[in-house]
Amino acid sequence: SLFGNKAKDVFKNIDSILILAAGTSYYAGLTAKYWFESIAKIPTAIEISSEYRYRDSVPNLNQLVISISQSGETLDTIEALKHAKKIGHKKTLAICNVQESAIVRASSLVFYTRAGIEIGVASTKAFTTQITVLSLLALHLGMVKGSLSRSEYQKHLAELESIPDKVSEILKQEKLIKEVASSFNETSNCIYLGRGYNFPVALEGALKLKEISYIHAEGYPAAEMKHGPIALIDEQMPVVVIATKKGHYDKVVSNIQEIKSRKGRIIAVVSEGDVRVKELADYCIEVPESLECFTPILTTIPLQLLSYYIAVQR
């Protein structure tokens, strides 16, 4: 198995999943929650490591505990994992980029993301590889649990293999993304919106802007915009919306119309060939079509580049 020799025994009787992570890895875990529940049909809980380690929780010994960390040395996640083991959890899997790190040593199964050394503090390739690995795990568990047919499994794998080429396509829009960055590099606030699989991408996009360009940014589920953030929207406020064709497209379009009516400046990440959002947004960055569940791997890339260019320009 991809996940080591003991994986078969560990995965066999799991009835739920608990994900422990911090920062960017936490957003990767949030994306995975959508996958584990929609593809593998396994109930999934996700905890921020620093909260989980200090609170009383109810252990379920048939639960798979997944800890996610780029370095494998994130103190809160190490302690959260130790806490989980102390209260009785035995089925543990580490998703990590650094071999022989503390989290790896403390876990019974490990999957290395093999992203190469992460030089910057803002995990970019670490995030991309984490979500790729987590999507593979969801497919694998879907097969183990019988909730995914072999033909669906093959279809998803074929799609996953085409993702690197699609990422290369997105990277060709560097010039456009630089231009978007130069329109917004003076701003002091920014809102990021997404729905479904792309809600965690909005959170991660906002985090990247904060981390490397020092601009205050918030990620929100698009439909929650009316519960607070809408009051902040005016011609000074850039709003980044992930609005790919699949998923909740019509609903996101109506969210964009609300932003437009308040004169918000809209940067949209859309599917190739989109027309409806193009009429409303100030800027559109296109990503190639893909299965809905894999859109986060693609939509993340333009947001990383946007933060990078804004930071460089500032």
List how many beta strands DSSP finds.
10
Overall pLDDT metric: 94
SSE class: alpha/beta
In which range does the helix fraction lie? 40-55%
Strand order in the sheet with the most strands: 2-1-3-4-5
Strand content: 15-25%
Largest sheet: 5 strands, parallel
Q: Output the radius of gyration.
A: 19 Å
Can you write the helix and strand succession as a string?
Answer: HEHEHEHEHEHHHEHEEHEHEH
Question: Which runs of at least 5 residues are low in confidence (pLDDT < 50)?
Answer: none
Ends apart, CA distance between termini: 47 Å
Shape label: globular
Number of helices: 12
Can you put this structure into words, describing what you see?
This protein is α/β, with parallel strands linked by helices. It is 47% helix and 18% strand. The chain contains 12 helices and 10 strands. α7 (150-171) runs parallel beside α12 (295-313). The termini are far apart. The relative contact order is 0.12.
